[in-house]
Amino acid sequence: MSDTHPFASECPHCGQERLQPGYDRDELRQLIRTGAEIEAHCMSCDEYWPVSVEERADLARALKA
Description:
CATH architecture: Alpha-Beta Complex
Distance between the termini: 20 Å
CATH class: Alpha Beta
Oligomer: single chain
Strand order of the largest sheet: 1-2
Order of helices and strands: EEHEEH
Helix content: 25-40%
Number of helices: 2
Number of domains: 1
CATH topology: CBS domain Like
């Protein structure tokens, strides 16, 4: 079973918090550590966007817990 870490991100198009299915925990840690983009998606708007700096910080804190 994959060790995914779901998270919420606000869609810049509709302004709604959208639950993201999550990335593998190790992959998320690597993306955060290297500063690489973490992409989110809104199924209602069919929009993709990079998560915000604040959301990245929240993810980093959650992964440390």
